[in-house]
Amino acid sequence: MTTETDLTESHRRLYSASARMLLAQVDPVWRGDFWPPERARSWRELETRLAAVPTGAGKPPDPVDPACRLASRRTPADGPIGFAAAVRAWEARLDTDPGPGRTYDGAPSGRGVVLDAAWQSAVLELLAELGRRVAPGRPGYTVAQDAAGLAQAVLETAEALRAPLTAVGIGANAAGSPRPPDGEPEPAPGDEVTEADHSGLREAARAALRTVPSRADAERGDFSIRVAVCDAAADLARIDRGEDAPAWREAFAGVDPARHLVRAYHWGPGEQRPLPFAERADELRVLQADYPPPRLLDPQDPPPDVLGESGGRAALSPETALVAAELLEELAARLAPGTRVGTMHFAAYPLHLFLRGRFQRAFTAD
Question: Domain containing 64: what range?
Fold first, then answer.
C-alpha cells in the first residue's frame, strides 16, 4: 500500500523531472507545428498536467507561496499576484512604450535612461539568475543567512535604475506593480497530492517520453530536439521505473541554491567552484563604486541607436528601466535570508520565458 508520504515524494520527483525535460528544449516548440504531431500533442498534454497539479512540495509556511506567486508584490487588497498576470502587465507596458528618446507620437524627447555597458551586463546576469530560480520543477530550498548582502545589493541596483526617472516624476507612483485585472481569477494548485494527480502526470510523462529519440539519434541528425532533452528524458524514465536518478540537475557542479548563485560560476583563477552570495555582492559593490550610475538621457546625447553603437553605453526606455527594477526586486525578495521556496510550479513558466525572451529583447535594444 502506498502511504501519503511515499506518494508525495514520488510525485515531487516525477514533477521536477518532467518539468526539467520540457525546460531542456529551451523554447516551447511543442506549441507550434514544427514537431511531429504526436510528439507535439503529448508534450502539450504534459505541460497542461504540470500546470494543473500540485508539485508535492507540501503546504508553504507563508500565505503567499513563492513557488506559485510573485514574492515581491501584492495586489492593492494585499492578495497574491500570479506569474502569468504579472507577465501580462509587464508585457503590456513594454508594448506601449515608444522607446528611449521618443514620445508616444514618435517625436524626440529626453525620456530614457542611459547606463554603462557594465551596468547593463550586471542587470542581465542578475535577471538570468532570477530566470533560473523560477524555472519550473526546481526543488525547494531555504535561503541561507549569508544572502543578506546580495539581496541588499540587488535592491540598490533596482533603485539605481529607477532613481533618474522618479527624480523627474516618471513612474513615481508606479513602480508599476503588476496586478491581474479585476475579476480575473488566478490559478491556485492544491497543496495535497492525490492518486489521480500522480497517475495523470505519470501517464502524460510516459506518453511524452515515448516521443523522445535516443541520444545517439539526436546526435546523428534529429535537430528537432536538443540532446539535453534526451539526457533529461533518461533520468525521467529511470524515475518512472522507480530507479535511483536525479530529478533535477544544476548547470554547474556543487551548486546549492540556498548558498550559491545558480546561473554563475567561478571559473578561475584558482579552483573552479560555485559562486557564493557574498562574493557576488562584493562584485556588485565594485560595479557601483567604479562605474557611473544610470542617468537620464540628455538632449545633448547622440540618438539612442547611435549611443549604443558607439560602445560602452546603452539607452533604455522608461518602462524598460522600471520593469527591470521590479524584476530585480523580485530577485531580491527571493534572496532574502530565511525565504522558503518550495518546488517551483509550472505556473512560473511565463516568467521564465519572459525573462529570456520579451524582456531581454527590450533591455538589449538600443
Answer: 4-364
